[in-house]
Automatic annotation (TrEMBL):
This is Putative deacetylvindoline O-acetyltransferase. InterPro entries: CAT-like_dom_sf. Belongs to the plant acyltransferase family. One of its GO terms (molecular function) is 17-O-deacetylvindoline O-acetyltransferase activity. Keywords: Acyltransferase, Transferase. Gene3D superfamilies: Chloramphenicol acetyltransferase-like domain. It comes from the Eukaryota. Its EC number is 2.3.1.107. It holds the Pfam family Transferase.
Length: 460
């Protein structure tokens, strides 16, 4: 066959195989009942004030298990199913927003104090059609493709979107559904996001939401109000978020490999390491080695491990942002073993619990974030940040067509970050790394890492 004909056929087949997402509708879903007058303004806490202004993204995949995963011929059935599910999602979202009323509001600033105007403006809801089976997307975690299933760029700001909560329901030609959600980090952390999604799913499933978890929105700001100029001087700047160009990779640790990794990390100092501790530490270790390989010298390194303050403060129902940081430092020269780094991290966690275990004042939180900011601003240290979304119940999100087959983090290009999320069985973990390109090139061939983790394996 002629070379040019072959090339033409290749280009044509590639064009035909490309995923096309068609936006069918864009609308605003408002709460089913208006916010009470005394709840019209919801002040943000010092925690909310100090987090960067971007969106937390997450994707839920629901294959159509009743129909084989190929292009179906029952067009009418497919169409009616989409209409029914879309209506259910919007109706239940409207009811859920009545309980999560700040999510339907708008952020405003008065005298440098951030608040939410709970004016029931609503959340964005986008509906799309995707011209391929859902299995094609689930074969590999491709950040470029997955980002198209989200309603907006996670690294955009509230000012650019006009919404605190955005949803995109992507209906595939096979009948499968992927729900992309982004929520402003100014009003939610991973725990709050998980609580909201489980509540929305419960409302959709039961229509009355009898099983919805308790939530408290006003308490954090009353316990930890914002402060004037001192707090504003500590605000986390977006330059920490949008620093250097970087790339994302996904590593998956199955349950058996985590057991093996725990065994390797166990020591007399830490006889019972957790899976978050061992996975976080291994990734931190490999990232430091990659940096040393490219720089030809060892830089001091700091690990910031996000800590859910609800456990420490014994307030499990507080919404918004209640995240502190455990600081773990590796400053000495030379190699560090997995065991020694796990011991460093465990010691830092225990010190954090002792320091804040009996409660924490607003001034202590301010000082905590000041230390955090000073360390982040030190250009002589490699800073790594890890956030664990494990045990937040994302795989419990059953809207009425079963639990998700895959819940994933689409990835954000924020240098030196690690996000951990459960695998479907609840025992394994997916880890999403964002590093400088030259560091990632080293880490993705690290033999120690690949002995316990698979680089972007297929989901199905």
């Amino acid at each position: 066959m002629n070379f040019f004909i072959k090339k033409l056929i290749y280009v044509w087949s590639k064009m035909c195989s490309e995923m096309v997402i068609e936006v069918i509708s864009k609308e605003t879903v408002t709460p089913s009942s208006s916010s009470l007058h005394h709840l019209r303004t919801s002040n943000l806490s010092v925690f909310d004030h100090l987090v960067p202004d971007f969106y937390i993204p997450i994707l839920f995949f629901y294959p159509n298990n009743s129909i084989t995963d190929h292009k179906i011929n029952i067009v009418d059935h497919h169409h009616s199913m989409i209409i029914e599910r879309s209506k259910l999602l919007k109706t239940s979202l409207s009811k859920t927003l009545s309980r999560f009323y700040p999510f339907a509001g708008r952020i405003f600033s008065h005298n440098n104090i951030l608040s939410i105007c709970c004016n029931d403006n609503g959340a964005a809801f986008i509906e799309t059609r995707v011209n391929c089976p859902i299995s094609k997307v689930m074969e590999k975690h491709n950040s470029g493709i997955l980002s198209q299933l989200l309603p907006n760029d996670p690294q955009s700001t509230f000012e650019s979107t006009g919404y605190l909560l955005l949803v995109q329901a992507n209906f595939f030609e096979c009948g499968g559904l992927a729900i992309g959600i982004t929520i402003s980090h100014k009003i939610a952390d991973g725990f709050t996001l998980g609580t909201f999604i489980r509540s929305w799913a419960a409302m959709c499933l039961s229509s009355n939401g009898m099983a919805l978890p308790a939530t408290e929105f006003c308490v954090p700001a009353s316990l930890y109000p914002q402060q004037d100029l001192f707090i504003n001087s500590l605000s986390t700047s977006r330059e920490h978020v949008n620093s250097e160009a970087c790339v994302n990779k996904r590593f998956v640790f199955d349950a058996s490999n985590i057991v093996r990794l725990k065994s390797k990390a166990t020591s007399a100092t830490v006889p019972n390491p957790t899976r978050v501790e061992v996975v976080t530490t291994l990734l931190w270790k490999c990232a430091m080695e990659a940096s040393r390989s490219n720089l030809s010298f060892t830089r001091p390194a700091m690990l910031f491990l996000a800590a859910n303050m609800r456990k420490v403060l014994k307030h499990p129902t507080l919404m918004g942002n209640l995240v502190g940081c455990v600081f773990a430092a590796k400053t000495q020269e030379g190699d560090a073993t997995l065991q020694s780094l796990v011991a460093i991290l465990r010691k830092s966690i225990e010190e954090f619990k002792v320091k804040y275990g009996e409660g924490v004042s607003r001034d202590a939180i301010c000082q905590h974030f000041k230390e955090h900011g000073d360390l982040m601003d030190n250009n002589d240290i490699n800073n790594y940040f890890c956030s664990s979304w494990c045990k937040f119940g994302f795989y419990e999100a059953n809207f009425g067509w079963g639990k998700p087959s895959w819940v994933t983090f689409p990835g954000m290009k924020i240098k030196n970050t690690i996000v951990l999320i459960d695998t479907k069985d609840g025992e394994g973990m997916e880890a999403f790394l964002s590093l400088k390109e030259e560091d990632m090139a080293v880490i993705e061939t690290n033999k120690e890492l690949l002995a316990y983790a698979s680089l972007n394996p297929t989901v199905i």
